[in-house]
Structure formats: structure tokens, C-alpha cells
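help with this record:
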Amino acid sequence: MFWTTIKRIIRSGFIQFWRSSFVSLSSILVMFVTLFVIGSLMFSSVILNVALEQIKDKVDINIYFASTAQESDILAAKESISKLPEVAQVNYSSKEQVLVAFKDRHQNDSTILQSLDEIGDNPLGAILNLKAKDPDQYESIFNYLKDQSFVSKEGISIIDKINYTDTKAAIDKLTRFIRAGERLGLIFTCVMIGLSIVITFNTIRLAIYVSREEISVMRLVGASNIYIRGPFVVVGMLYGLFAGLLTVGVFYPLTYWIGKLTENFFAGVNLYSYYIANFTQIFSIIMLSGIFVGALSSYLAVRKYLTN
């Protein structure tokens, strides 16, 4: 009996879907807009996350060592710092590498180059470049470096300078920018999805309004709420199914067309490559979102006519 009722509900839903073809087409197009917004927000989120990661990657701390510091002492300090849980990466530049880079930066300044030649010995020290796992962790790393004594065998500090104080303002500003970007992205996503669902709900409610007399007749003959509501839920799921297929189909040529553009202008992200690589995930999210929104909207929209 149960399965017989389910089959009748599904069959009735398909019949109603094809019978009201114009209303179904209108509802599918409106739901397509909803799913297109959801999909676009997914792609926008990818671009935003990559851009934020690139900004995070530009934040760092440099530790400048004294020119007299021994390489063995510097490497021991590097090993100790690398073990910190907050540290994501430590890059070591020897004093010879620092000198070569310094000369490259000032290759057009003959005065500085002549001064280096007159000094004879390399006056520059080695550098450790630190990158934290999160911008908020730079202060704790700096406090560790400030409290920890890195000294030579003679008991002399091998660290000449740490540039955290100089870059703290920039780190704080970038951190605030990253947090604001993440919050605004989340808020915008929620608002757009909410508006899209409301529009879809109202469209499906209008489609069900056309069948209000049919619902009244079914109630008069004693049809149960499940049997009345079921076909409309099936119709809503069909709206979501076809709208999802349309959305997935539109995103293929669209991402192919703008893929190179986004790769050149938006943090090197090729949306077409991302779409192909994550097609299964994107397809599942869009299809399940369409079916869920369609079923839920139909369920809520028809409730009005069952409670009167």
C-alpha cells in the first residue's frame, strides 16, 4: 500500500509537471537564476580564497644575523625556530647570498658598489625569513625570538635585528583586511542565497496558486495531506533537477570563455580548470541544492492550502 501510494504521487507529480509546461518552464528559469547565483558564489569564493592566501604569503619576518655569526650557530637557531608549531616555513640565506642579492639590487648605484669594494670583507650577515601559518601568530613568534637567547660559543648574541617591529603595522593591517574579506564574503554569500531561495519560494507558490481549486477538490473528496502535497513536492524536485542540469551546462562554456581572463587578472586561478577538476563536487552541490530548494519550497508553499 505504501509503495503504491508513492508510485501514484510520483506519477501525479510528473503528469502535473508536463501538463503545466509554461508554469514549469518559468519556475525552472527562476530556479536556474538561484542555482547560478549559488554556483557563481562558489567560483567567487575560490578566487577570494586564493587572493587571501597570496596576501598571507607576502607577510613574513626577517631575522638579520651579525656578520660575525658562525654558520653553524645560525643553522642551529634555524633548527630551533623551525620546530615552533606556529612556523610554516623558514628560508635561510647565507651571508654570501645576501651580498649577491644586495649587489643586484644596487647594480646601478656605483657609490654603494665602490664602498663595498673598499671595505673588502662582506659586511652583511645571513638572514632567516619566517612565514607563520596564520598572520595572527607572528607576535607570538616574535616574543619567542625576543625571549630566546641565540648566542655564539663566546656568549655573544648572533642576532643583529628582527624586523617585526617595522612591519607590525603592515601585518596588522593585512590581518584586518583578510578577516574583513572573509566575513564580507560569508555575509554576501548568505544574503544572496537567502534572496534566491525567497524568490524561488514565491515563484513556486505562484505556480501552486494556479492549482488551488484542484487542491480544494482533493480535500473535499477526502484525500490525505500527504497525497495532496506529494505531487507538488515531486514537481518542485523536478524544477530543481532541470534547473540544476541547465546551470551545470551553462557553466561549462562560461568558465571556458572566462578561464584565461580570470587566470590573468584574478590570482592566477583558471576557473575552467577548476570547474573540470572539481566537476563532481560542483555538480553534486548544484543538483542537490536545486532538488532540496525545490522540494522545500513546494512543501512550504502548499501548506497554506492544507491549513485553510
About this structure: Residues 87 and 132 are 4 Å apart (CA to CA). The chain has a mean pLDDT of 78.
